[in-house]
Specification:
This protein is an alpha+beta fold. A six-stranded mixed sheet has the order 2-1-3-4-18-5, sandwiched between helices. Strands 7-6-17-14-9-10 form a six-stranded antiparallel sheet, with no helix packed on it.
C-alpha cells in the first residue's frame, strides 16, 4: 500500500479544517493511506527521518511552504505531491497544469517522479523562480493587503514607489541595462532572465496591479536571455524573493541553475 502525510499551512488564507479533512479522505480513497496531517507552523516540517516508510508527502499550501518543506528533505526517498492551496500556486501549475485538488489526487498514481530545475543563489533555492532587485519591496504591500494591515499600506506603497523609480536598480555583469528588478526562472540547465521595466507612469501602475494581483511576473518586462549563470550588479544589498519568500542578496551575488533535492510528482509533459 502507498502511504502518505499531508501538510497544511494554518496561516494560509486557504486554511479550512473541514477542507483539510476532505483532502485527507481523498488521499485515502485514492490508495494513499494518509497517516498524519502536519499543521504548519504549529507542527514542525518533517525531515527524512520523520518520513521513513512514507511514500508521498502531499502539501496543500503555497509555493513558499513547499520550498521550505523541500529543503528539509534532502536524502528522503519519497515524492512530494503539490496541491494548489496558496495565492498563486505557480508550482502546482508547473507540475499539474490548472487541475484542481481532486483531479490532481485522482491522477496521482499515474504521475511520474521528476526532479524540477531550480534557481540557486544568496544561500537560497527556488523552484518557481527568484526576483532580485529593489522592486521586490512591492511584496510588503501585497502582504499588507492579504492581512488587511491598513496602517502599513501607505508607508509601504511609498517605499515601493521610491525603490522602483529611484536609484540605479540592478543589472547583470557584462550587460549595460539596469532594471527595478530581475526575474530569474529555471530553464532546464540554464536560467531564463527577464528585466522588469518602469519607464513611465503607465508601467508603474501595471506593476502595482501585477504585484497586488495573482501574478507579479505579469508586470511590464523584457526578455534579457538564457544564461549558464548570472552575476547581479547593484549598489549595496538588494531584496530577493525566492518562491515568494523574502530574503536579501549582496551586490555581486551569482545565481546558477540547480536541481531539487527530492522527487516531485508531475503529470504534464515537460514539468521537470
Amino acid at each position: 500500500m502507498t502511504t502518505s502525510w499531508l501538510i497544511q499551512n494554518v496561516h494560509s488564507g486557504s486554511y479550512d479544517p473541514d477542507r483539510c479533512e476532505s483532502i485527507r479522505a481523498q488521499l485515502d480513497a485514492n490508495g494513499m493511506d494518509c497517516r498524519r496531517v502536519v499543521r504548519f507552523p504549529e507542527h514542525e516540517l518533517p525531515g527524512p527521518g520523520d518520513l521513513a516508510g512514507i511514500d508521498i508527502l502531499a502539501i496543500y499550501t503555497g509555493d513558499g511552504t513547499v520550498n521550505s518543506a523541500m529543503r528539509k528533505l534532502d536524502g528522503w526517498g519519497g515524492a512530494i505531491l503539490v496541491l494548489p492551496g496558496g495565492t498563486m500556486n505557480l508550482l502546482s501549475k508547473k507540475l499539474h497544469g490548472d487541475r484542481d485538488v481532486e483531479d490532481i489526487i485522482a491522477h496521482s498514481q499515474a504521475a511520474k517522479r521528476v526532479r524540477p530545475a531550480t534557481v540557486e543563489g544568496a544561500g537560497e533555492q527556488a523552484l518557481v523562480g527568484m526576483i532580485v532587485g529593489p522592486a521586490t519591496s512591492w511584496a510588503a504591500v501585497r502582504e499588507d493587503m492579504r492581512h488587511t494591515d491598513i496602517g502599513d499600506i501607505g508607508s509601504d506603497v511609498s517605499e515601493a514607489l521610491h525603490k522602483t523609480l529611484g536609484g540605479n536598480g540592478v543589472g547583470i555583469e557584462g550587460h549595460d541595462a539596469n532594471y527595478p528588478a530581475l526575474n530569474l526562472t529555471p530553464a532546464g540547465e540554464r536560467l531564463s532572465v527577464d528585466g522588469f521595466v518602469a519607464d513611465n507612469a503607465a508601467h508603474l501602475l501595471r506593476h502595482g496591479m501585477a504585484w497586488l494581483g495573482k501574478d507579479f511576473r505579469e508586470g511590464p518586462h523584457e526578455r534579457i536571455g538564457l544564461f549558464d549563470s548570472v552575476t547581479v550588479t547593484a549598489d549595496g544589498e538588494i531584496g530577493i524573493l525566492f518562491d515568494g519568500e523574502a530574503g536579501e542578496a549582496g551586490a555581486g551575488e551569482t545565481f546558477r541553475p540547480g536541481t531539487a533535492p527530492v522527487d516531485f510528482l508531475a503529470d504534464i509533459p515537460g514539468a521537470s
